[in-house]
Every structure is written in structure tokens, then in C-alpha cells.
Amino acid sequence: MSLIKVEDIAFVRFRAPDLSEMAGFLEDFGLVPQLVDGVLYARGAGAAPFLHVTEEGEASFAGVGLRAASVADLEKLAKAEDAEVRRLDAPGGGQVIRLTDPDGHVVEVVAGQAAAPERALPARPPWNSAAGRPRQRQTKRTGMGAAHVVRLGHCVLNVSNFRASERWWKDRFGFITSDEIALSPEFSVGAFLRCDRGDTPTDHHTLFLVQSPKGPGFNHAAFEVADLDDLMAGHDRLKAAGRKAEWGVGRHILGSQVFDYWRDPWGHILEHWTDGDLFTAADGSNTATLQDLMAVQWGPLAPPTMA
Ligand SMILES: [Fe+2]
After folding, report:
1. b/e per residue, 49-77, with b = 16+ CB within 10 A?
2. Arithmetic mean of pLDDT over the chain
3. pLDDT at res. 131
4. Of 54, 87, 205, 272, which is the most exposed, with the fewest CB atoms less than 10 Å away?
5. How far apart are CA 273 and CA 275, in angstroms?
6. Residue whose C-alpha is closest to residue 231's, from 207, 255, 213, 251
7. For residue 135, how far is its CA from the centre of ligand 1 (angstroms)?
């Protein structure tokens, strides 16, 4: 039994030496950046007040935010962890408790944030396929420009000891294994973890912990965009802006999502994705292979930098 059950990932936090350079990249990526009291907050089209935060400083990953169901849940964590619930001084307000995982990754658990007004997504007529042609006597014009990032979907952290980290994250936040990556019957290198939302379907993974030879640290963060056309238009925009492509466009096996990975100006990897799997708590857990993890259903193979 875990201390609490988190509802979703909330944000990722970075430091960078040049906030206007970061803002330019985030606009190309399809987020809406805003400078508040010297901190850059970027939001998407969904209700979260922000999804990506950058403080001025030496370029680094500075933590991941999770969304708890209530401030009462933060109090539960505070009691168990001998930590303090504080005011979250950021757009949308709310409360936060800051913890560190076994590798020293900062984990901010938040609750009580005010919802931001949602922005409209591009209206699309239906998709015609050979099996069904619901769009008739109507054109499709998808438009160009940056993707419409809607929400943050998951974060991947490299850890030094998968089992120790798995225990820490599951005991506190109630994560359920979707797919565990087993190199042999005795040794697993990581796992895709989803939130326990009971009967409410939730993303195949909100967190992926993977024991990496690179040592602990940030691997990537992944943002859901409006749809496939949006992802492809967003790809063109990032390419035209001279941004650094990492891997994509393709379709993953585990999680099934269409993916497109890019690097920010300091090399942090951010992913666009769409059409991912959703599971409930009752859907259980599976074991998968390294091949399942790194291979694709279609699209280019992973570059060595993603391994
Ligand atoms: Fe991902």
C-alpha cells in the first residue's frame, strides 16, 4: 500500500543560462512561455498552469513535478517524510512538498493548483482510411506552424539501481508497472510505470525508471500534442527553425505512441507524442525485452544517443 496515489505528472523543471533562448525553443516546440518574477513558465493548451519551468543558472535538470489528488495527500507525505508543505510560488498557486529520490532527483508533489483557461485545439474533419471514409464533400487543411502541446505525459529518469528506485517511487506515489524490461529472468533494467487511477484509464506510462550505464539523471520528458497532423506540422516547424532532431518520427512498441524527439539548446531531450495506450489499474503488468523497448513499429531505429 502506497502513501498516496498521484494523479499525473505536472511539470519538469530546468536551469539554463539564457531564458530568452529557452523561450524561443519552447515556442518552436509548441509551448507558450511566460516570464514571471525572473522564472520562465511554459504552458500548453490544457488546464495545467505550466508544464515546463526554467530558472536562470547553469544548464541542468532541476526536478520533476507530480500532481497529487489533494493537499491532504501532501500532508500525508509530509508526515511520513518529515518534510514541509509549502506554498507553490508559481502561476496557478497551490501547495508543494519537495522530496529527493534515492539518486538525488528532486520530486515536487503539488496539489491545489488553479486550472488555467484551456486553449482551443485545431478543429479537424474526420480521417479517411480505406476501411471507412467518414469525410465526404469536405477538404482537409491542417495548417502549418508549431505543434499544439496539450499536456505533459511522462518523464524518463536514469537511475543507479532500478529496484531501489522502483520501491521508492511505488511506495510513495502508488505507481503500477505497465511493462518491466527484463534482460534475463533475474535482472530487470527498468519499467514503464503508470498512475493508479482505479477505473479511470491513464497513460501507459507517466514515469519510466531505467538503470543506465550513463548513471543517474534526466533522460527525457514527453508532451502530448493535438494529433498526428499536429505532430508532423510541429516537426516541420522545429526543422525549419534549425532545432536539433534526436529521433523520429516513429511509433513505439511499448505504449504504442507516435513519437518525435528533439533537443533543447542545452541538449535536454523533449518528446512530442500522440495516440498512446491507456490502461486502468485492473489491466495489470507485463514483462518485455530490451528489443521491445528500443525497436519501433515503424520509423527510424533509435540513434546511439538514445540508448
Ligand atoms: Fe518517451
Report:
1. bbbbbbeeeebebbbbbbbbeebebbbbb
2. 97
3. 98
4. 87
5. 7
6. 251
7. 32
> pLDDT at position 259, please?
98
Q: What is the mean pLDDT of residues 114-121?
A: 97
Average pLDDT over residues 266-274: 98
Between the CA of 271 and the centroid of ligand 1 the distance, in Å, is 6
Cα angle: 190, vertex 196, 201; to 5 degrees = 105
Three-state SS sequence of the chain: CCCCCCCEEEEEEEEECCHHHHHHHHHHHCCEEEEECCEEEEECCCCCCCCEEEEECCCEEEEEEEECCCHHHHHHHHHHHCCCCEECCCCCCCEEEEEECCCCCEEEEEECCCCCCCCCCCCCCCCCECCECCCCCCCCCCCCCCCCEEEEEEEEEEECCHHHHHHHHHHHHCCEEEEEEECCCCCEEEEEEECCCCCCCEECCCEEEEECCCCCEEEEEEEEECCHHHHHHHHHHHHHCCCEEEEEEEEECCCCCEEEEEECCCCCEEEEEECCCEECHHHCCEEECHHHHHCEEECCCCCHHHC
Query: Ligand 1 mean position to 261 CA, how many Å?
Result: 8
Instruction: Place 306 in a pLDDT band, splitting at 50, 70 and 90.
Output: confident
pLDDT digits (tens, 9 = 90+) for 16-53: 999 999 999 999 999 999 999 999 999 999 999 999 99
pTM: 0.97
* Cα–ligand 1 centroid distance for 130 (angstroms): 30
Q: Is the pLDDT of residue 260 over 90?
A: yes
